[in-house]
Amino acid sequence: MKKIVICTxxxxxxxxxxxxxxNNLETPDFGFKNAYAIALGxxxxxxxxxxxxxxxxxxxxxxxxxxxxxxxxxxxxxxxVYIEDSAEVPAYYRExxxxxxxxxxxxxxxLVRFEFVETPQEADMKCYFKNINDSNDPAIGFHAFSxxxxxxTDSTITFRKVDNKNHNLDSKxxxxxxxxxxxxxxxxTGKSVSIYDVMYPIGTKFNTEITPRDLKTLGLVYSVVPDIxxxxxxxxxxxxxxxxxxxxxxxxxxxxxxxxxxDEVAANDVATHLALAEQYRKRAxxxxxxxxxxxxxxxxxxxRSKSEVYYEVAVMYLDAEEFDKAKSCAEIACATDMNDLxxxxxxxxxxYTKRSSSAIEQLDxxxxxxxxxxxxxxxxxxxYRDKHQENLLNATIRKYGKTAGEIxx
Length: 409
Hints:
This protein has a single domain (2-339), classed as Collagenase (Catalytic Domain) (3-Layer(aba) Sandwich), CATH 3.40.390.10. 44% of the residues lie in helices and 8% in strands. It has 16 helices and five strands. It has helices at residues 2-14, 48-56, 60-64, 91-107, 171-185, 212-221, 235-238, 244-248, 270-282, 286-299, 303-319, 323-336, 345-352, 356-369, 374-386, 390-400, and strands at residues 79-83, 114-117, 125-130, 141-148, 151-160. Strands 2-1-3-5-4 form a five-stranded mixed sheet, covered by helices on one side.
């Protein structure tokens, strides 16, 4: 009965508004989702509504609440990166970590950039592979800044040589871990609550694609005056940057982790509804969260914005493994705003619910009709890779790699 109620409210109020999120590798990136193109970076030339929308659709608040803002001076990019070339680990380890750096550079549209060097002495960022004998900590990678006063001197990421079962690291696990540790190293010191964001604490699922929320958070981190950085920020640049308080004051939302009774909060704006949805989601009260998301969507004026809110509802139900509800949301998304990403949602849900054959059939159809659909292409490649169907994977790359698999798209 609950499922019918939720789907009904989505269809009734949102029948015309759902999702739209919208040194190089030669093969498709790991993962299946790809962030839609956004212009990274915010400054005081932008209106308060623009900043507020970015904060709402990010986890900047979690970064800000995690202590001082620590990030690199943008004038320092490209940062020099050393990745240990060790004969004691498989050769693909280094290649996977390198590809994770490249993924951040491409996804951020060059906001963060890297240059690989041969020695640690000349590097700003250093990556090593070591034996870590801690069976109680499942983490694959660990990041630490070296700081002298308020100055970053370098950044170090240490990866395990083997997992807790003494097996070589799976490339997908290592790539996911590298994305997250690199995220820490460029300033994303807080965690996301969405399981699909790179900065979600890694558990049994691995995040292998940088999301719009990751990118908006990164853009906001580089829009504020840092507390700790590697070289001084010029006064001219500081004049264009925000303080953390100025960013957070755009919200003025009376809801946080310490709010005892969310049901008593009166929500009169989009930010408060979304903050309530986030808190209900954290507390696993998914139906109440869905209602708050719905209220926020009704207050938005354009279908693109409405669709992003409904997308979060679908993601929430995927996180909760309530796949029927997620599928209903995906169907509404396709009916509301058909685009390259929404078109792949039913196949994505089929993939997650172990119906790979159905997912493959749908993706084949999508690519036959639109060979430029990079989302369908990446998901199809991922399925073939996971199923170890190398012949079909290679055939897909040959057929669609030049249209849907262009690097940097």
